[in-house]
Inverse folding.
């Protein structure tokens, strides 16, 4: 990275003066007039008051050139192209907001952690790294930062309790390590129009003996997939399922993003199972990872996990378009919008904006969608009280290797792009909600009919069951990369589901063992347990009032259950 060093104090004074000359309330008012308007939870007077606070707090840093980074999604594109410029105009702090691939963000973060070099002044990285940040102690505790060194640059109107994902970014020590910037969930997606077609309803009832509706469990999802696959609707051959299977890094997200939890892997607990989480990693009473394999009390290769992989493979082969097997995440994403998919069990709400565009086969002439999203169905091992799916929470992270003044300036920008002044407008652009106050804004009540259930879901009590990776994962970058390789072997047929998960848990334990030997995470790092068989660990779990690892269920095809979508939505508002 090139470093530009000002050797002249005169030059520095001129630069700061230039920054202050054009920054102020006139620029703030122009921004509020042209970009925000009434798309805010704050009235105009409160918006201006918040902008004045940013102007005043930024004065010591005017003229600085700050670099931050995030992955490339619509929300961050808006920040980079619109909000970064507005912040620079208003405060005099120049912001360069880089957009790169998600994997590249993690790589840059890893490099900064390993080298101590300040590559970026702040990162928006997934809260999946919360266990990593807490254990390595290379990220600033925002709780401590806001109370001490960063107090003078912490917005009194920040309102941390308004952030719906704050539990995701809080470590076992009770401290906040990251501030959510955007969130989206993976939910169940289906063709509402086809499910409400009278002939389809009658035919389904005649064949399966129960009503066609939103599947509550995987048995019902499987029946619905079978029912629609091979039908012809509007001149197109229809498939009852969509997924992707190419051996590629994106295949790892497909599974670390809580697929195993949907099947019933791990223990009860929100936001994550304890002591065994949805990755199958077990921790002791001090949050020290003790194993991943069933032999050490983990669940990565237990019956629930193996069942989840077998269902993934079976459904891909029987009910998805043949080309899905060779697709990556990004290639498969647009397929449901093309009009030949009846349902998808694992669909990211980040696709919502692209799924409601005029002219699509899945959108009516009046702009309302022909599809809906609903809570994901769960597998046979799932029990009430478990998490039910994944919610991404890209979150602001300040590294300790970043100098205080640069961290302060970057923290101001992080608060600006998540502020109550701008959050409603930003959420309309990206549809990735982080604040409860934004969710309740009237503009989203008005827009809800065109968003296919997104607003209803996020306002519902069900929302809390969708959570990111939790604190049991001690080194997310190292462990996450193991998943796509292991699952890819099962997807290609090179290994059975059991063999793939045996391999995965063994590889995870090698990382845990290396961390234990190195001692780099101190008394919250891994401490591996003794090995015993499944029956032993299941008995220990039951004795402790826990679940994982569960014994194999003899009949994994449980009684199918569906619910009427409209009745489900009504129940949320009671």
């Amino acid at each position: 990275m090139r470093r530009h060093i000002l050797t002249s104090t005169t030059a520095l004074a001129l630069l700061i003066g230039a920054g202050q000359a054009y920054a102020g309330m006139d620029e703030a008012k122009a921004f509020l007039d042209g970009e925000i308007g009434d798309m805010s939870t704050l009235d105009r007077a409160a918006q201006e008051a918040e902008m004045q606070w940013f102007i005043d707090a930024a004065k010591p840093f005017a003229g600085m050139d700050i670099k931050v980074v995030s992955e490339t999604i619509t929300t961050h594109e808006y920040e980079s192209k619109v909000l970064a410029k507005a912040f620079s105009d208003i405060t005099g702090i120049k912001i360069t907001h880089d957009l790169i691939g998600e994997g590249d963000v993690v790589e840059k973060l890893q490099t900064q952690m390993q080298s101590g070099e300040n590559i970026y002044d702040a990162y928006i990285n997934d809260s999946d790294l919360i266990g990593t940040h807490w254990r390595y102690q290379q990220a600033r505790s925002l709780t401590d930062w806001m109370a001490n060194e960063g107090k003078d640059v912490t917005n009194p109107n920040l309102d941390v309790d308004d952030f719906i994902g704050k539990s995701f970014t809080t470590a076992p020590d009770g401290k906040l390590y990251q501030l959510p910037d955007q969130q989206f969930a993976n939910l169940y997606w289906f063709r509402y129009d086809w499910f409400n077609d009278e002939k389809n309803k009658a035919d389904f009832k005649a064949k399966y003996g129960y009503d066609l509706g939103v599947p509550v469990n995987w048995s019902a999802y499987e029946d619905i997939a079978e029912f629609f696959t091979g039908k012809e609707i509007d001149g197109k051959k229809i498939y009852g399922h969509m997924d992707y299977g190419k051996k590629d890094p994106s295949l790892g997200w497909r599974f670390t993003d809580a697929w195993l939890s949907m099947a019933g892997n791990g223990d009860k607990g929100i936001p994550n199972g304890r002591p065994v989480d949805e990755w199958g990693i077990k921790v002791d009473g001090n949050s020290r990872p003790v194993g991943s394999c069933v032999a050490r009390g983990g669940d990565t290769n237990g019956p629930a996990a193996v069942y989840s992989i077998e269902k993934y493979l079976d459904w891909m082969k029987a009910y998805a378009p043949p080309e899905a097997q060779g697709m990556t995440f990004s290639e498969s994403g647009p397929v449901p919008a093309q009009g030949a998919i009846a349902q998808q069990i694992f669909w990211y709400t980040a696709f919502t904006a692209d799924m409601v565009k005029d002219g699509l086969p899945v959108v009516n002439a009046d702009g309302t969608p022909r599809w809906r999203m609903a809570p994901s169905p769960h597998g046979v091992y799932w029990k009430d009280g478990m998490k039910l799916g994944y919610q991404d929470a890209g979150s602001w992270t300040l590294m300790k290797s970043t100098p205080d003044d640069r961290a302060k300036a970057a923290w101001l920008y992080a608060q600006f792009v998540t502020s109550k002044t701008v959050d409603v407008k930003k959420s309309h652009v990206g549809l990735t909600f982080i604040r409860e106050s934004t969710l309740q804004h009237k503009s989203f009540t008005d827009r809800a009919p065109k968003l296919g259930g997104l607003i209803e879901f996020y306002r519902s009590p069900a929302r809390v069951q969708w959570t990111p990776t939790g604190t049991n994962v001690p080194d997310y970058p190292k462990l996450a990369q193991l998943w796509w390789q292991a699952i890819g072997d099962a997807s290609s047929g090179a290994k059975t589901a059991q063999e793939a998960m045996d391999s995965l848990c063994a590889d995870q334990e090698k990382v845990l063992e290396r961390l234990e030997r190195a001692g780099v995470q101190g008394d919250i790092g891994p401490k591996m347990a003794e090995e015993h068989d499944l029956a032993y660990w299941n008995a220990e779990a039951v004795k402790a009032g826990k679940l994982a690892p569960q014994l194999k269920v003899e009949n994994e095809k449980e009684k199918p259950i569906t619910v009427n979508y409209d009745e489900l939505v009504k129940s949320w508002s009671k």
